[in-house]
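To close the section, here is one more complete example, presented without commentary so you can practise reading it yourself. The ligand is calcium ion.
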Amino acid sequence: MKNTKNLSTTRIFALGSLVVLALFGCTFFLIKGFKTRAYTTVDIPTEVTVGNASPKFMDGYEPVESPASSTTSPTAIGGVITFKANAEDSNGEPYYMTICRTNSITEPDTTGPGTCSSAANTLCTSIETASGQQATCQYTAKAGDSWNNEWYAFVCDNNAQPACSAGHQGLTGEDASSPFYVNHAPTFTAISNNSPKNPGETVTWTATASDPDNNQVKLVVCKKDAANGGGISNGACVGESWCVGELSASNPTCSYEMDEVHVAGTFDAYVYVVDAHNLPASGGSQEANSTFTVNNMAPVVTNVTLNDGNNIVLEENTTVNVDVKATVTDKNGCSNVQSVYANVYRSSVTCTNIGHHNPNNCYTPVTCNQVENSCVESSGVANYVCKVSMQFHADPTDANTPYTADNWLANVHATDVATATGNLVLGTGVEVNSLLGFSITGTINYGELEPGDSNEYLDKVLTTTPTGNTGINQDHSGSEYMCTDFDTCSTASGFTPIYVSNQKYALTSNILYSDTTNAFVLGTSPATVLLKIPKPLSTSPTGASTYWGINIPGGTATGVYSGSNTITAQKSATGDW
Ligand SMILES: [Ca+2]
Ligand SMILES: [Ca+2]
Ligand SMILES: [Ca+2]
Ligand SMILES: [Ca+2]
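Output:
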């Protein structure tokens, strides 16, 4: 090194002077001996030349970076590193500190700092600093810097023939020692994801990315970009994230595990790559919107019941509400289900659209409503109830009906907002029970007759209207007597009850009381009357009439006679429905 060479030259010169002086002294002594002259006082001239020594870094004040730059805490591009050291010059001269990239310094020809081997190799140079004081200089990290940047600190004195120290890299093993590290942004050239996926599945993004410093890289996927209040900070999304990946050597991935229930649709997903120091990539695919799609799932219908599994009991001449219940599951959430309806029908009937609606055998569509608070958000399950307003004349399917082989079923349909559908037919149906019923308008008032008289024609009409769901006949019977003190009907002297057999009835009009074929005698035992009223098909069913008359036996006392006739409905043979 040049500084070392200069120091050696100086030393050789000083030693030469001493040798000359020694020779001179020895000669003088010999002359004195020869002349034998005595002196009491001799003036001997002296001389020394003091060489210039370079400044030295002081112990405990070796050169350092501030802040320290290390692999775990590298310097950002544009970041400033201040180099600091204290040096002492044994000549007491001020000094300059110069930081070079290589272990080489050139002393200046005249006063001033030393120079590195090239301008490119010069990091910084301090101002003139007094011996023993701290010298500082600053370097701003540049994109062109390497990851790993060696440096050497030199101190050169301010002398007419300056001398520089050896290069110093700081204390071994210290973060603040050479080298300093400059972090560069990762490159991020492409992004992809594996959607569409179903709710409950996992969407994975894969980035094409690496780091010029061989730092590990990480992929972060955010719900919003920076322009909309999102973006990233310190390697994390500012707002909500879809996922935060793991650090990897290159091509990092990031996976979003969907909940079991997830809204369907396409979602914005802004992708960011950062290095292990959370330095974001710039350009390329950074902040690209790599949208992902969650599939719509068709609703699924389960647990269909009709009337809670019980046979259906109708009510005469009116409707009853029968419940259909079902569970509907949509993995896009309960609210994704837009409509639910049921078809309720006799099993051998086609009942799939409103054109099939028939209150005898097919109720469609029956609106179903979500049971309040039944939605379980985490599973997309909700319960529904559909109320069927079933008419009294709905076809019975129990024994002794034309539909014994059938039963009643429910088919529940669910449709979601994306018009995907699901349905389920009740597996085991229930019966609609036979409902035997009728109503009769009017009472039988035979009018005013004298003993020995009868109604010439059976002209007192009773109209029977069926109010159930079967074809019907009737049984007719009457109390044994009509009497003035009904229903005591005293047979004591003075009381003349009218025996039941004086009443007759017919199934058609214009039958004479005296007709022995078509006028039937009423008795106390029920007699089957084959009215053959058909099974009602509507709320205005076909009815039937019976025609009545009476004969007043001779000797009957005057008075108002009362009695009671009993008419009972009987299910007719299925052939008469
Ligand atoms: Ca010096
Ligand atoms: Ca360092
Ligand atoms: Ca980096
Ligand atoms: Ca859905």
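Once you have examined the tokens, check your reading against these statements. Residues 202 and 460 are 83 Å apart (CA to CA). Residues 183-184, 186, 211, 213, 215, 275, 279 surround calcium ion (ligand 3) (CB under 6 Å).
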